Every structure is written in C-alpha cells, then in structure tokens.
C-alpha cells in the first residue's frame, strides 16, 4: 500500500483520483480548500479509514508553510499536485487584468514549487518517490495555433515538469 498525497481533492479530477486510489487499496491524504465543506470527501472518509483529510489553500503562502505540520512527518510515496485554476475565461488582448494573472500564476506555477519545497523531507522518506504535477496542453508552445487565453496558457507553460530528489 502506497501513501498518496493529492491536492485539490474535493472535486473534479482530484476527487476521482482519490476515489480510484482508495478502490485500489492505497492510503490517501486528500488536501482540500474548505470552500463548500468538501461534502464528497466527508462522505468518503466515513467509509474509508485509509483516507485522511487535510486543509490547504495554495493561494495563501502561510497555508502552504503550515501544511507539513498537519502531515506530522509522515512519509509520502506519491505526491499528486492536482490543484489548478483556469482564471478569467476572457483573457484576450485588451481584457487582461494583472491582478487576475498573478493570482493564477500563484496557484498554478508558484505554489507547486513552494509546496514541494516544504514537503521535501516527507517526499524523500517515501518508498516510490513519485511527484506528479498536472498541467495542460494549453501550455504547449507547439500546440498554440490560435493564441489568446494568455493567463491559463502562461501559467501552464510555467508549471513544474520535474524535480530531482
Ligand atoms: N478538466 C480538464 O479538462 C483539464 C484539462 C487539462 C488540465 N487540467 C488540469 O487538471 C487539474 C484538475 O482540473 P479539474 O478540471 O479537476 O479542476 P476543477 O474541477 O476546477 O477542480 C480544481 C480543484 O483545485 C482546487 N483549488 C482551486 N484553487 C485552490 C486553492 N487556492 N487552494 C487549494 N485548492 C484549490 C479546487 O478546490 P475548490 O473546490 O475549493 O475550488 C478543486 O478541488 C488542474 O490542474 C487543471 O489545470 C484539467
């Protein structure tokens, strides 16, 4: 059984990763932002003693810095940095807001590296030592035929691809 840490686990792809890993018998540490109370995760935890829920807001550097305390030094075998936001849908020339752009860069590009830095000792202690960072083909330079979408594209290009432990 591996211990898998997943961020943004309360909905979307992160929730599905959580469900499928639990079904495989893995131990899952699911990090979520407490906006809606994470109803699905609360239901899952009742039926799955190998699931632990932790709170994390990656837009908040203090929340990132405090996160390892919640893990209490537990080894993490697989880290899935799943959190990502699209930001404003209309980020075309003439409509881009610097504040919104920087907010998206913080979540998609800066936070994954900061989070990995603060978790490095737990990650080094893990058996598998696999780090997975979700990104998007919107971050592909080769695939960018139609331009636009500056905010999400730039934050996807600059997401972490690999880190050496
Ligand atoms: N869906 C796609 O078609 C697609 C395609 C390519 C890449 N991706 C990438 O795949 C990943 C997951 O996508 P998705 O479609 O599952 O996204 P989603 O349904 O919008 O879910 C995003 C998750 O990130 C969390 N999140 C957002 N801001 C956060 C913050 N500041 N701190 C902590 N958690 C935060 C959300 O929590 P809240 O519920 O609290 O907001 C939610 O759990 C993203 O990195 C995305 O860029 C998705």
Please give a structural write-up:
With 165 residues, the protein is α/β, with parallel strands linked by helices. The protein has a domain at 3-87 and 112-137: NAD(P)-binding Rossmann-like Domain (Rossmann fold), CATH 3.40.50.720. It has helices at 12-23, 39-47, 61-71, 98-124, 150-157, and strands at residues 3-6, 27-32, 51-55, 78-81, 130-133. It has a five-stranded parallel sheet with strand order 3-2-1-4-5, with helices on both faces. It is globular, with a radius of gyration of 16 Å. NADP nicotinamide-adenine-dinucleotide phosphate (NAP) binds at residues 8, 10-14, 33, 35, 56-59, 82-85, 107, 134, 136. NADP nicotinamide-adenine-dinucleotide phosphate binds at residues 8, 10-14, 33, 35, 56-59, 82-85, 107, 134, 136.
Summarize this structure as a short list of keywords or feature phrases:
single chain, 165 residues, alpha/beta, Rossmann fold, 5-stranded parallel sheet, 5 helices, 41% helix, globular, binds NADP nicotinamide-adenine-dinucleotide phosphate
Distance between the termini: 21 Å
Named at the architecture level, the CATH assignment of the domain at 3-87 and 112-137 is 3-Layer(aba) Sandwich
Roughly how many Å is the radius of gyration? Answer: 16 Å
Share in β-strands: 5-15%
What about the largest sheet?
A: 5 strands, parallel
Task: Tell me the number of helical segments per DSSP (H or I, 4 or more residues long).
Answer: 5
The SSE order reads: EHEHEHEHEH
Please, what is the average pLDDT? 95
Named CATH topology of the domain at 3-87 and 112-137: Rossmann fold
Task: Label the overall shape.
Answer: globular
The count of DSSP E runs of length 2 or more, i.e. the number of strands, is: 5
Q: Quick one: CATH class of the domain at 3-87 and 112-137?
A: Alpha Beta
Q: Bound compounds, please?
A: NADP nicotinamide-adenine-dinucleotide phosphate
Corresponding CATH superfamily of the domain at 3-87 and 112-137 = NAD(P)-binding Rossmann-like Domain
The chain-level structural class is alpha/beta
Strand arrangement across the biggest beta sheet: 3-2-1-4-5
